[in-house]
Amino acid sequence: MAYRFEFDPVNRILLVRIEGRLTEELAIALYGEIRKYSIATDARAGIWDFSLVTEVALSAEFIRHMASQEPAMPDATHPRFMVAPTAVAFGLSRMFQTLGGATRPLLNVVHSVDEALVELGVQSPQFKSLE
Q1: Is the pLDDT of residue 1 over 70?
Q2: Regarding beta strands 13-23 and 3-8, do their DSSP bridges make them parallel or antiparallel, or are they unpaired?
Q3: Residues 50-83: pLDDT tens digits?
Q4: Cα separation of 69 and 51, whole Å?
Q5: Structural domain for 75, as ranges
Q6: Cβ(12)–Cβ(44) below 8 Å
């Protein structure tokens, strides 16, 4: 599987870890899954972790298109983080953040999951697999 979902029920954080090659097809599927799991868990925050991505095969046009879509995590008052440790992933994540900022005002791009957890004020999350 190219991604897996985890959830911390105490802090209500949805975490998705993406692995391997990130393609446009995978990103579209992932977008729908994020919506499904964020609604099902009533998540109050989201972390999309690109730390294990080995290649990013997304065009700038695709990023523009996805940023114009309704947010995957519907409630704009909930913080969400894109974890992008590599320069390419970080740059594309920032592009997405900038282009989608009107509908995702609490989206942040960070370098590590730990950095996201610090910003959320969470010290010891207890993530459990949703699969």
Answers
A1: no
A2: antiparallel
A3: 999 999 999 999 999 999 999 999 898 999 999 9
A4: 24
A5: 3-129
A6: yes
Measuring CA to CA, how many Å separate 72 from each of 26, 31, 39, 100?
14, 6, 10, 11
Nearest C-alpha neighbor of 110 from the set 54, 64, 46: 46
- Output the average pLDDT for the chain: 96
Number of domains the chain contains: 1
CATH, residue 19: 3.30.750.24
- Cβ atoms of 48 and 37 closer than 8 Å: no
CA distances from 33 to 79, 85, 122 (A): 18, 23, 24
Question: Which tokens go with 104?
Answer: 């995702």
Beta bridge pairs of residue 108: 81
Structure tokens at 63: 């990023």
Give the separation between CA 117 and CA 123, rounded to whole angstroms.
7
